[in-house]
Amino acid sequence: KEVTSVNPLQIVAMFAAIVWVIGIVVMLGFLFYSWVRLKNQVRTAVPKEVAGVKIYQSENIATPFLFGLIKPRIYIPFSVAEQDLTYVVLHEQAHDRRRDYLIKPIAYLLLTVYWFNPLLWVAYVLLCRDIELACDELVIRECEKQQNDNDEQKEDEIKSDEVAILFNYDIDKE
């Protein structure tokens, strides 16, 4: 009888491949579970319009977010104060304009395939943080621009009033 031996490296490679596939299945399972759970949480969300934008409010969520891949919707908890609602909507609209609802799932799928690489975990966490900061910055810039436009308009109105007052004063002088 001929006995064939198996190279120990083949055993290690097979074991590593099995662990890698199990990791992918776990990551995809977590994605599916999270998606279904979130879908159930927002099922009872109530539509509302804020500054011309349709949003959905729910008592079942803790933080605002954009949800959906094809037609993403803005979901906001009822706990968000009315005076903050406009800024929160602007922030979520920034996510929509930047297409973050597509970028983040693609990044998660990359993380799913390369789950064993700690650098990819760090990169994913930093990506998520940078996405939020970029949207915050967009909202701040937009608000500052509106404030500057309002200030310029007020300044023009004040100058017009000053010119009118000075013109009237000059007419009265003659």
Condensed summary:
The protein is α+β, with helices and mostly antiparallel strands. 70% of the residues lie in helices and 11% in strands. The protein has helices spanning 8-41, 82-98, 100-113, 118-173; strands spanning 46-50, 53-58, 65-67, 73-77.
Care to describe what's here?
The chain has a four-stranded mixed β-sheet with strand order 1-2-4-3, with helices on one face. It has 174 residues and is of the alpha+beta class. It is built from four helices and four strands, in the order αββββααα. The longest helix is centred in the C-terminal third of the chain and has 56 residues, at 118-173. Helix 2 (82-98) crosses helix 4 and helix 3 packs antiparallel against helix 4. Residues 163-174 have low confidence and may be disordered. The protein is elongated.
Keywords:
4-stranded mixed β-sheet, 174 residues, 4 strands, alpha+beta
What is this structure's SSE topology?
Blueprint: H1 8-41, E1 46-50, E2 53-58, E3 65-67, E4 73-77, H2 82-98, H3 100-113, H4 118-173
Parallel strand pairs: 2-4
Antiparallel strand pairs: 1-2, 3-4
Helix pairs in contact: 2-4, 3-4
State mean pLDDT (0 to 100 scale): 86
Indicate the percent of residues in helices. Answer: 55-70%
Alpha plus pi helix count: 4
Tell me how many strands there are.
4
